[in-house]
Amino acid sequence: MYKFSNFISRQYYDKPLSIAIVGAGPAGLYTAKHLYKDVHNINVHIYDKDECPTGLIRYGMAPDHQRIKKVADDLLKIQEFDSCKFFGGVEIVILLINNLKGQDITIENLKDYYSAIFFAYGAQKEKNINIPQNHKNIYSSMQLVNWYNSHPNYYDMKIDLSNVRNICIIGNGNVAIDIARTLGQDIQNLLNTDISDQALEIIKKRSIKNIIIVGRRGLVQSQFTLKELRELGKIQNFKIYLYKPELIASLNDSSVLESKDQGKYYGNDTRANRRKLEFMSEFNIVEDQQTLQRIMDSSTDDINIIFRYLLSPIEFNQEGVLFQGNDLIGEPFKQTVIPNDQIQLIKSDMIVTSIGYQSEMIDSNLIWDTQQQILKNSDGCLVKNDEQIDIGLYSCGWLKTGPKGVIDQTFLSSIGSIINFTNHLEFQQITPKPDPFIQIKRDLNNIKHYDWNSWSQINAYELQKGKEKNKIRDKICDKNVFKQF
Questions:
Q1: Per-position DSSP letters for 74-119, written without gaps between them
Q2: In the beta sheet, which residues pair with residue 325?
Q3: Quick one: which of 249, 316, 454, 481 has the fewest CB in 10 Å?
Q4: HSE, side-chain direction, 13 A CA sphere, residue 163
Q5: How far apart, in whole angstroms, are the C-alpha atoms of residue 283 and residue 241?
Q6: What mean pLDDT is predicted for residues 347-363?
Q7: What is the C-alpha separation between 17 and 432, in angstroms, rounded?
Q8: Which strands make up the sheet holding 284-286, listed edge to edge?
Q9: pTM
Q10: Strand 377-378 relative to strand 381-383: parallel, antiparallel, unpaired?
C-alpha cells in the first residue's frame, strides 16, 4: 500500500486531488478502489458510455458464470465514498481524427478539471477477418455475447437458431468456449441466470447438432484456459471430439517442449499447457474424416463439440467456411504457421468470428500504439511524442496491456499504473485540484446521465424483476426503460 513520505509538506498533503477514470469496467472500478485505499483527500469521478457500471462483468461474462460475476459486489463498494461519483451514459469523446467533436465531454475538459486521468475503457471492438464473406449467417463473438447478455445495442438482434445444425467458431479462446457452452448446453442450466429473455427463447428453439471450434495453430497453443475447458467437459449433453490427424501434426517437438512440466522453458510456464493437454487427452479421438462426418451426421440428442486445429479461414461462402491447412514452425513459444497445400470446407449454417478484441483510440492527441492497438504507455504511464512520460495520464487493464488473460490479470495490470501515480504524487508532480462536480453537472445539464443513485434503483428493479421470474437478475435491455431512472 502506498504511504506518503515524510518529506511531503503538510500543505501539499491537505490539498484535494480530483481523479477522472474513463471506463467503469473491472479495471476502472478496481483502480478507484485502490486509489481510496492508497491516497487521502481525493475525489474520484468515473465515466462510462453505458448506463450501468461493471462493463465486461455485466455484458461480457457468460450468463452461467454467476460466481465470477460476484466480484462486482466488492468493486461497487466504492460508491460508499461520498467523494466518488459515477457518470453513466456519458460519451467522453468520439474519434477526433474524423473531425468529430466529443458527444458529451472531451478529454480536454477532463484535463482542465482533474489532477490525473486514468483511461480504463477496455477493448470494445472486435478484430476483423479480411477474407471474402458470402454467407448469410455471420456474427462476431462481440455481437453474440452482448446479445445474450442484454446489451441495449444488441439485445434485439435478429438471430434464428431453429434451422442451424452446424456452427463454426473461428478462434479458440475463452470467449469461443463461452459461446459454445451458452448456445449448446441444456436449457435448464440457463433458466435461473441473467441471460436475456429474448436470447433464451431463441436458444430454446435451436436445432444445433455440431459446434466446431477452429484454431489456426495447434492444440498446445489453444488460447482457452483449463478452467474453461473443465466447465465445457461438465456439460452433460456435450460430446467432445479431437481430430487425430491435426492433433498429431500439432504436437511437434516445439509443442512438446511447450507442454513439458520442467519448471519454466523460454521464460514461459509450461505446467498449464501440460495440464490442459492431459485433460484434453480424455476427449474422444476421431481417427479420420469419414468417421468425423458420420459423427456430425448422427441423429442423437447430444451436441458435438469438435476441436479442429491448423486451419486458417480463406473464405466464407454459401456452404460454410473454406480453410487453408497450416504447418507449425518455430521455436517453443514462438511458433507460427505457414500454409500448406490442403484446402477443406467445413459446412456451416452459422459462422462466428472470435479472434479477439481490440481497443479504439478516442483522442488523436493521445499517442496510439498501432501495433498493439493500445494507448502507448510505460507500465501504465502514457507517453508523449518524444517518448517522455505524460505525468498525470495513465492507462489500466486491457487498454494498457491489450486484451489478455482473465479478470485477475486485469486487476494486476492496474496495480502498476496506480503505483506510478502515487510515486508521481509523492514527488509533488501531480497538481492538486478541487472537486469539479458542480461544473461537471453544469456541463451535463442537458444530457441524460446516470449516477450511483440511478444505479441503485436500476439494480433493485432488475433484482426484483429477476425474483419474479425465478432468475438471478432480469437486466434492462431497452434504453427507454433506463431513462425512467
A1: HHGGGGGSTTEEEEET------GGGT---SS--HHHHHHH-SEEEE
A2: 311
A3: 481
A4: 5
A5: 6
A6: 94
A7: 5
A8: 138-140, 350-353, 166-170, 210-214, 303-308, 238-243, 284-286
A9: 0.92
A10: antiparallel
Comparing 62-76, 90-104, 154-168, 449-463, the range with the smallest average pLDDT is 90-104
Helix 141-148 vs helix 197-204: crossing angle, to nearest 10: 110
* Distance of alpha carbon 109 from alpha carbon 87, whole angstroms: 15
Q: What angle do CA 307, 309, 310 make, to 5 degrees?
A: 170
CB-CB contact of 72 with 431 (8 Å): no
Burial (0-12, 13-18, 19+ Cβ within 10 Å), 129: middle
Closest CA to 95 of 359, 360, 363: 363
* pLDDT above 90 coverage of the chain, percent: 82
CB-based contact 332:265 (threshold 8 Å): yes
Sign of CA dihedral 49, 55, 58, 63: positive
How far apart CA 120 and CA 171 sit, in angstroms, is 25
- The helix or strand, by DSSP H or E, that contains position 12, with its residue range, turns out to be helix 10-14
Task: Give me 321's grid cell.
Answer: 467456411
Rounded Cα–Cα distance for residues 462 and 477 (Å): 10
Cβ pair 309, 250 in contact under 8 A: yes
> How many whole angstroms separate alpha carbon 116 and alpha carbon 268?
35
Comparing 16-20, 265-269, 356-360, 430-434, the range with the smallest average pLDDT is 265-269
Cell 473461428 sits on residue:
170
Closest CA to 152 of 483, 479, 484: 479
Name the 3-class secondary structure at 47.
Answer: strand
**What phi and psi, each to the nearest 5 degrees, are found at residue 284?**
-70, 135
Contact 23, 47 (CB under 8 A): yes
Question: In terms of residues, how long is the chain?
Answer: 485
Residue 43 in grid coordinates: 475525489
